[in-house]
Amino acid sequence: MLAGGWTDRDLGCGDVRRYVDAAGLLHFGGSVALTVETFTALAHKYTKQPDLFAVSIRAKNLVMRVRGFCCGWLTADIGGLIEGESGRIRAPIPAYLIEHAGSTLVFDAGLHPDVRDVHSARHRSLAPDFDCDLPKGTDLSERLEACDVDPASIELLALSHLHFDHTGGSGLVGNAELVIQRTEWLAAVADVDGQTYMPADLDIERSLHLLDGEWDVFGDGRVRLLPTAGHTAGHQSLLVRTDDGGELLLCGDACYLRRSLQTLALPPHAFDRDAQLEVFERLRRLESAGARLLFGHDPEQWPDGPDDDRLVELSGAVL
Ligand SMILES: [Zn+2]
Q1: What pLDDT band is residue 195 in, cutting at 50, 70 and 90?
Q2: What spacing in Å lies between the alpha carbon of 264 and ligand 1's midpoint?
């Protein structure tokens, strides 16, 4: 009997040497390690063909991998991020690729490629307040291709919220089901004048998975969407437990900058300021408990552009 109640027969690994290490990871022939939860999730997928399952694990290196990259930068008045401050900030727009249990999830989509065209309606509508920069090689599809991932193969696209700098690249992963909090979707659809959202970003024909609270994306507790409303009506953040047992919290705009969290400095515009302050307190508690926080637009956490094409490995695969 192995960890988690699995037997050699269940594993169906033939001649592959396997063992459980001190951290509780299952090793397959020394090349791949999985937590018991991940293995269980995978086994359910392949349960009728255990031999094929074992081969698939080895062939596909089905381990948790999280990569982050910037899908554009916005230069704007810093007073829009921290109330009362003056000056300009060049803010990165991060997006993330999570590969886990044989599936792919993208969290946030960055800027729409149209912002590159100064004559486009999208560029003109944003130009008074934002200087949008989306260098060649940095839109969502180009970032994914740099990860050797076909944008058309992405299965899930979870958006923290529906502001233009998080949803603009959604169409570049057009086969992915959109995962969003129901309250966020309803608020955006109701904003027909585009006061808060950009109506052109909303694809009402798209395959939608509307959430009413927390959601365990892969059913094994490793990747969870957490409601963090306050910045917008239905904002959500993504909590990832990596193979080494660490936690990453992809905040989205629940908090723009590390400095915001340190000083509890809210932006001037929020859907619900009290709720956002409560979210700040939750983020502080998660960080105190050991989670690594990645903020919504913090220039100190990301390589600077405009020509920087680095991808940031946030969670190394256990090999
Ligand atoms: Zn944003």
Answers
A1: confident
A2: 18
At residue 248, φ and ψ (nearest 5 deg) are -115, 130
The answer to whether 256 and 231 are in contact (CB under 8 A) is no
Domain end point (choices 19, 38, 60)? 60
Considering the domain architecture, whether residues 15 and 116 belong to the same structural domain is answered as no
- Give the three-class secondary structure for 280: helix
Q: What separation in Å is there between the alpha carbon of 163 and the centre of ligand 1?
A: 7
- 109 and 247 in a single domain? The answer is yes
C-alpha 2 to ligand 1 mean position (Å): 45
Tell me the CA–centroid distance for residue 192 and ligand 1, in Å: 20
Residues 124-152 have pLDDT tens digits of: 888 888 899 999 999 999 999 999 899 99
Q: 266 CA to middle of ligand 1, Å?
A: 14
* CATH code at position 276: 3.60.15.10
* Owning domain of residue 33: 3-60
Strand, helix or coil for residue 43: helix
Residues with CB under 5 A from ligand 1 (ion): 165, 253
Length of the chain (residues): 319
Residue 109 alpha carbon to ligand 1 centre in Å? 11
195-204, 223-232, 289-298, range with the lowest pLDDT: 195-204
d(CA 86, CA 73): 19
